[in-house]
Design goal:
The complex is a heterotrimer of chains A (about 200), B (about 350) and C (about 475). Chain A is α/β, with parallel strands linked by helices and about 200 residues long. Helices cover about 25% and strands about 30% of the residues of chain A. Chain A has a single domain, classed as Rossmann fold (3-Layer(aba) Sandwich), CATH 3.40.50.2020. In chain A, the strands form 3 sheets. Chain A has a 5-stranded parallel beta sheet, sandwiched between helices. A 3-stranded antiparallel beta sheet of chain A has the order 1-10-7. In chain A, a hairpin with a 2-residue loop joins strand 8 (about 180) and strand 9. Chain B has 11 helices and 9 strands. In chain B, about 35% of the residues lie in helices and about 15% in strands. Chain B has helices spanning about 10-30, 55-65, 85-95, 110-115, 135-155, 175-190, 215-220, 245-255, 255-265, 285-290, 295-315, and strands at about 45-50, 70-75, 100-105, 125-130, 165-170, 190-195, 210-215, 225-230, 270-275. In chain B, helix 6 (about 175-190) links the parallel strand 5 (about 165-170) and strand 6 (about 190-195). The two termini of chain B are about 25 Å apart. Chain C is an alpha/beta fold and about 475 residues long. Chain C has a domain at about 65-385: TIM Barrel (Alpha-Beta Barrel). Helices cover about 30% and strands about 20% of the residues of chain C. Chain C is built from 13 helices and 19 strands. In chain C, helix 8 runs parallel beside helix 9 (about 245-260). The longest helix of chain C has 18 residues, at about 220-235. The chains are: A alpha/beta (about 200), B alpha/beta (about 350), C alpha/beta (about 475). At the A-B interface, strand 4 and helix 4 of A face helix 1 of B.
Chain lengths: ~200, ~350, ~475
């Protein structure tokens, strides 16, 4: 058995810095507008917790391109906790709020937004949750990082960065809206490796 | 949290978690599709040794909205009334793979006994035991009070406590499981609890409770409570020399029209009147009070389903080995643990 | 059966080497012929070569314990306990005499039933089994049972009690107290005012308020004791108060004794150690009557036992079949086993706290209960010529209570899992070792003087003859 390199036994490596994240989101925002042929009927639903601030940022970038868009009116949060298939495998999760934009989701083009796409099970739960809330015209998926290892036939429409990883590694997304490191807000994506 | 047996052993953290989860459940109740798949394939048994249609259907609705299978076991008229012991009944339910047992029992401590005996692995939810506790009733009362204050303040209720609130509980505290559960829970959540009732219906030992006690209802009302919770007067107390007559009880301890008007006179515009139901109209509460805009009686019933959904969800959804300290991890999306599903470690 | 020619160890004797008499200096004892034949250096000299030697280094020799309060359940509830199993438990616990309470089924309210219990005790041979007679017919609290017939029976009953139920009718209590004077009997009262304790489940106080269990207020015990000591004074009778459980009762008894009233009082081991805080578990193993009280009460009871206000320890050993405890609190039976833990609990609560020395221990567990029950040959000093009812105790031993290994049928020990001091290493009953090396040995053979069980039951008659003026003259069965 080897002695871990650091005290915690975890190696960290920054793969996306603040500017990288911003660039990726800008690109995704443009892709969304392009795929949708404009902002019509667009609704961005972030999956908590980090999907929601990402959805807000995307909405702002869309609004920057299309000034007719009020970012608050096209953004919402979709909690998928109660739809997960792994509830019994983990400590009890508290459900978080689901908030839809005032227009609802019926006949809208809903873009689910999440930070990391991995097995695809969260998105599967999100699709089930959506079905209980209404009937969108189309559902698309935008993620900041796709790290592979899919376990379901699910694919992202918009990806910030494809990140080949091993299953021993852990991808962590830190967003300034939520994450404080050493007391200051941080925007970064890191890979942690259990040495 | 493995069981929900009493509010006395409920930490502020667990209580808030229950109430916050209930907020999300309440939101589901406002949707067109009022059903969640969280407890699909789980079995909840309503084991009722006492008639209580209200509580049973509330738990039944809660379990069904979470997609659990529900078995109603009314002990009256069943083998239990033929002398089958609680132990044998419990083991029967265990053999039927019950994941949760919601138990209502006339004996104080029966749910605790069920939970600690080793007769059964299921989560035990106390739906009222004797004169001990009725924790989900207290939770729905706290939930109702929290929402009431949030509405006045125009702020969201999630995450808030009852700090600064003054709640007056009136009546037969001695025999009331609702009163006991509320005393512990409301004080845990930061409220100040006042008790008022005839000295014969306050337990010996009430002096050690975290409450002020009044023998005169009007003195207690002069403390300007934010909520007045009227307890039901059980018929069997009426002829047991606890008080001279129901008329005298009603005059001294009932929330009558005069006291309803007094709230207005005192300028207590935001004070609500609560009752766990079923009400004895004209006895502990007048019809005018029960039907006034101050009354939260129907909101309490509505909130009961949300709170019971929260309790069942939190008891049944997680890994049974977990402790609730680990909740902080829950926001890691996708496979949050070291072992993604379907893979061997 | 007892006239065979096989040499028996009891005849050759037992040489106990180096036992500390009542905690004093190590001494040798020779037990032979049912009595303490010699003490000190003479013991070794007098012992023949065929005497069995018992090394008792570090062990304390005490008079065999006498329990005034045991429920043996036979006849009627042999699933809970029998005279045989209960007296085995007693021997293991260091007892040489126990009083079998009257609440059997049928109730021990006639000469026939008490003689049956008495005969079963003789046949078992582990300890002396003294039946307690019921005060009222069927414990019904309405008519006096035939107290005289039970006193004059072969069982020689001297202690009468409706234990489990209070003799609450003041006239009936007065008459009972008066009547038993004729044969030097004593009424052992279960002090519980019935109206104040309807449906009572536990001590009324802070804990019952929280648990929502109907309270058993201290005043329900104290008011009956106050009434009874005044009645006893008025009619000049002796009164024994069973299982005193409250500080207030102690005060009343102290007052009564100061007034010269002939009252004795008993406390159980569990009331010397446990409090109503345990009820928070709702585990019916802690359900008992009178109920576990507060720590203030426990301390008052200990002090009272130390200063003599409370005279004796009585176990109130109350075995129950498991189904009567594996249920809801309110449905559960009241009572705890106690025979096999009494010595350890009292050592823990009284001796190790410095409240009693071993001499005091012998007083409250042996000498005084024997005097109250009028057992002249029990609870005697450890002196030459005295009946050899004695035990050897290892006070330094520590053990963890495991009800499943006990001799009693009852598994309802509230001390389960507790580590306690003190173990009985040997029990000598009428010169015969019923317990050796901490394990059951053999029951005492039927005494020589009584070839048939039918004729063995005369010691009660003797006691009555000596002290109550009834017929006497026959040799008591156990007092060779």
């Amino acid at each position: 058995m080897t002695v871990p390199a650091s005290e915690s036994g975890i190696h960290k490596r920054v793969v996306l810095a603040e500017a990288d994240i911003d660039r990726a989101l800008t690109r995704i925002a443009h892709e969304i507008l392009e795929a949708n042929k404009g902002s019509r009927d667009l609704v961005l639903l972030g999956i908590p917790r980090r999907g929601f601030p990402l959805a807000q940022r995307l909405a702002q970038k869309i609004a920057a391109v299309d000034p007719t868009v009020d970012p608050d009116l096209i953004t919402g949060q979709l909690d998928v906790t109660m739809y997960r298939d792994d509830l019994r495998r983990h400590p009890t999760r508290s459900p978080l709020a689901t908030q839809l934009p005032p227009s609802g989701i019926d006949d809208k083009v809903v873009v689910l937004v999440d930070d990391v796409l991995y097995s695809g099970r969260t998105i599967r739960a999100g699709l089930d949750a959506l079905a209980d809330l209404g009937r969108p015209r189309a559902v698309r998926l935008a993620v900041l990082v796709d790290r592979g290892h899919r376990e379901l036939p699910i694919r992202a429409d918009h990806v910030g960065k494809n990140l080949p990883t091993s299953s021993q590694e852990r991808v962590r997304v830190h967003l300034a809206e939520i994450d404080l490191i050493g007391g200051s807000p941080v925007d970064e994506v890191v890979i942690e490796d259990r040495a | 949290m493995k069981h929900l047996l009493s509010t006395q052993d409920l930490s502020a953290r667990s209580a808030l978690r229950l109430l916050d989860t209930a907020e999300e459940m309440a939101a589901v109740g406002e949707r067109e599709i009022k059903k969640l798949p969280a407890l699909r394939g789980r079995t909840v048994v309503n084991l009722f040794f006492e008639d209580s249609t209200r509580t049973r259907i509330s738990f039944e609705a809660a379990a069904k909205r979470l997609s659990a299978d529900v078995i109603n076991f009314a002990a009256k008229g069943s083998s239990v009334s033929k002398g089958e012991s609680l132990k044998d009944t419990a083991q029967t339910l265990e053999a039927m793979s019950a994941d949760a047992v919601v138990i209502r029992h006339p004996a104080s401590g029966a749910p605790a006994r069920l939970a600690a005996s080793g007769w059964i692995d299921a989560a035990v939810v106390n739906a009222g035991d004797g004169t001990h506790e009725h924790p989900t009733q207290a939770l729905l009362d706290a939930f109702t009070l929290r929402r009431h204050w949030a509405r006045i303040a125009g702020t969201p209720s999630a995450g808030t406590t009852l700090a600064g609130m003054k709640v007056l509980i009136v009546g037969d505290v001695l025999h009331s499981r609702v009163a006991r559960s509320n005393v512990w829970l409301l004080t845990t959540l930061g409220a100040e609890v006042l008790l008022a009732g005839p000295p014969t219906l306050l337990p010996v030992g009430v002096g050690s409770w975290p409450c002020r006690v009044f023998y005169n209802l009007d003195d207690a009302l002069a403390e300007r409570p934010d909520a007045v919770m009227m307890l039901r007067l059980q018929a069997e107390r009426m002829n047991a020399a606890f008080f001279p007559s129901t008329r005298e009880y009603s005059r001294r301890w009932g929330f009558d029209d005069g006291r309803l008007a007094l709230l207005d006179t005192m300028g207590l515009d935001d004070t609500v009147i609560m009752h766990p139901g079923p009400m004895n109209r004209g006895l502990e509460i007048s019809s005018a009070a029960a039907d006034s805009p101050r009354s939260t009686v129907l909101a309490q019933v509505r909130n009961g389903v949300s709170v019971r959904m929260a309790a069942l969800y939190l008891l049944l959804s997680g890994d049974p080995q977990d402790d609730d300290a680990a909740d902080g991890r829950a926001d890691q999306d996708d496979p949050p643990a070291t072992t993604p599903e379907g893979r061997t470690p | 059966m007892s006239h065979d020619t096989t040499p028996r160890p009891d005849d050759a004797g037992y040489l106990i080497r180096g036992a500390s008499l009542l905690g004093g200096a190590p001494t040798d004892l020779l037990v032979r012929g049912g009595v303490i034949a010699a003490l000190g250096p003479e013991a070794g000299r007098d012992a023949g070569t065929d005497a069995v030697t018992i090394e008792a280094d570090g062990l304390v020799a005490l008079p065999g314990m006498v329990d005034l309060h045991t429920h043996l359940r036979e006849p009627g509830r042999e699933d809970a306990e029998t005279v045989e199993t209960g007296s085995r438990a007693a021997a293991l616990g260091g007892f040489t005499a126990i009083h079998a309470m009257a609440n059997s089924s049928p109730v021990a309210d006639t000469a026939g039933v008490v003689e049956q219990v008495y005969r079963l005790g003789l046949a078992s041979g582990w300890v002396e089994v003294r039946p307690v007679g019921a005060v009222t017919v069927g414990l019904g609290g309405e008519r006096l049972a035939e107290l005289g017939a039970m006193a004059e029976s072969r069982a020689g009953v001297r202690v009468f009690s409706d234990d489990g139920i209070c003799v609450h009718d003041p006239v009936l209590m007065r008459r009972a107290l008066e009547y038993v004077k004729a044969f030097d009997g004593v009424i052992a009262q279960h002090a519980q005012e019935p109206r104040l304790t309807e449906g009572a489940q536990m001590n009324e106080g802070d804990v019952s308020a929280v648990l929502g269990l109907t309270g058993w207020p201290a005043v329900a015990e104290e008011s009956i004791i106050a009434r009874d000591v005044l009645l006893a004074q008025h009619v000049g009778s002796r009164l024994h108060v069973c299982h005193v459980s409250t500080a207030g009762s102690v005060e009343i008894i102290r007052w009564a004794k100061a007034r010269g009233i002939d009252v004795t009082a008993e406390v159980t081991p569990h009331h010397l150690l446990l409090t109503d805080e345990l009820v928070r578990s709702y585990d019916p193993v802690y359900k008992v009557n009178p109920p576990l009280r507060t720590s203030d009460d426990v301390h008052a009871l200990r002090a009272a036992l130390a200063d003599g206000t409370i005279d004796v320890v009585g176990t109130d050993h109350a075995p129950h079949p498991s189904e009567h405890k594996e249920c809801e609190w309110a449905q559960a039976a009241m009572g705890m086993t106690g025979l096999e833990t009494a010595l350890s609990v009292v050592q823990h609560a009284m001796v190790e706290t410095g409240l009693l020395d071993w001499e005091g221990f012998a007083r409250v567990t042996s000498a005084t209960p024997a005097r109250i029950g009028r057992l002249a040959h029990q609870g005697r000093p450890l002196a030459v010529g005295e009946p050899a009812n004695l035990i050897l105790v290892d006070p330094a031993a520590r053990w963890t209570v495991d009800p499943s290994t006990m001799a009693t049928k009852g598994r309802n020990s509230p001390f389960r899992g507790l580590e306690l001091p003190g173990r009985v290493r040997a029990t000598f009953f009428g010169g015969h070792p019923t317990v050796l090396d901490g394990s059951l040995a053999t029951p005492r053979p039927t005494p020589h003087s009584a070839p048939h069980g039918e004729q063995t039951g005369a010691q009660g008659g003797l006691q009555g003859g000596l002290q109550g003026g009834l017929q006497g003259g026959e040799a008591p069965a156990w007092n060779i």
